[in-house]
Amino acid sequence: MKGSASSPDSAPTMPQNPLLVPELPNPTVARLLQCPTDELARATRPSFLATDHSPVQWSENDWDRLEANREPLFDMSAVTAQFDRANYLRDGYAVLKEVMMPKTVEEWTEALKYGQELNDRLLKSDWTQIDWHTLGRTPPTKLLTIEDINNAIGGSQRVPQSDDEAGVKTLRQHSVFAEYFPAGHVPYLMNVLTHPQMLQLQRVSLGSDAIYFDHNQLLTRPPGYPGGAWHSHKIGGGADNCGVASLSAYQGQPNFNLTLCYPQGFEAKDDGGLKIIRGSHLFRDPAGCWADTDEEMRAGWLAGRKHPVTSEPLQIEYISLPPGSVILCLSHAAHAVAPKALDRTTRWCSLFCYKKPGDVTGYAQPSHSVPPVWAMKAQRGELPAVLTELFRPSYDKELTGGRTVDSQA
Ligand SMILES: O=C(O)CCC(=O)C(=O)O
Ligand SMILES: [Fe+2]
């Protein structure tokens, strides 16, 4: 989502990070940014979602309760035994098997089911009841089709959003859809986002004391999911599509750590599992490194390529994971998702992406998707200190060096 152009049927598009834009682009955005955050929070939780304890509406007492009731997420001795930072930097990913505490597995699974239920509730509701005005646009004139809705229920990343005609992009940016920034909907996931063990894991894996939050999603893959194509993600900061990096140059970049958490695990075949290519991140080639199928990947980008450090031929790895496992993946690493057979059960996953600043510039890349209400709360000092810091790249123009979107050089 870019710029401030008006589309014919809606209000002007909201910038990705409205608080980083040097001049307010138009009166609609200016009005949104003047709004009391409790009013905006209310607009992001229409009554049909029937949430009575959404983190976006938490009081100081609720935040205090979160701190007072924290329990360990991970068995840190199991994490330490499996995680080797040098290997992670060299290979672009690390698998941490069965590192969640038994209670974590249970509570995290329930949290993901509840998040999906909220997402489905929105899909099935009457969107004319949404307070579009407070969300910064005129009510949409187009509706999703029944087919679109049925196709999206029970899964993630399935709602059509090539434009904002039906209002989907607006509902995504403001995290009215629980699949985008689910930590703002589900108390347990807010616990995960801010948990000292999670933050420690990020500092260790990114090799940086300064870490920031970037984005958080539900990644639910139901039976019949057709699979996800090969891709990798840009990191911005001038570090994309610019040739192979040495390990030390790679470490210095403003790297992103995709933390994929699978409380119920998955099998290697037909189970919606993650596939990955060890060493592919060092090529820093999100523009060239993609393919629809494994066969195309092997015949195309992969053909003849070797790991720049180990000289092993690059190859596709089909991971299988027991319950309670986590995969850490650097953004440039090529990955894809296996299909999910009809006789399997839903694969549950939540993604928490954190990042570090670039070592040379000291700048952090702007947030990929911190909803405006959370950026505003952080800027206004309405959140606990830990979140105020984690969300800083959504509102601090100095830290982000004048950039306004995550992919900027
Ligand atoms: O579903 C998954 O396991 C990974 C999804 C993914 O690669 C993405 O959302 O970018
Ligand atoms: Fe991805």
What does this structure look like?
The protein is an alpha+beta fold. A five-stranded antiparallel beta sheet has the order 1-7-4-9-2. A four-stranded antiparallel beta sheet has the order 3-8-5-6. The longest helix has 22 residues, at 102-123. The protein has a single domain (18-394), classed as Jelly Rolls (Sandwich), CATH 2.60.120. 46% of the residues are buried. Residues 1-11 have low confidence and may be disordered. It has helices at residues 27-34, 37-43, 60-68, 76-82, 85-91, 102-123, 146-152, 168-173, 187-194, 196-206, 247-252, 294-299, 372-379, 385-390, and strands spanning 93-96, 212-218, 228-231, 256-262, 274-277, 316-318, 325-330, 335-337, 350-355. Bound molecules: 2-oxoglutaric acid and fe (ii) ion. Fe (ii) ion binds next to loops.
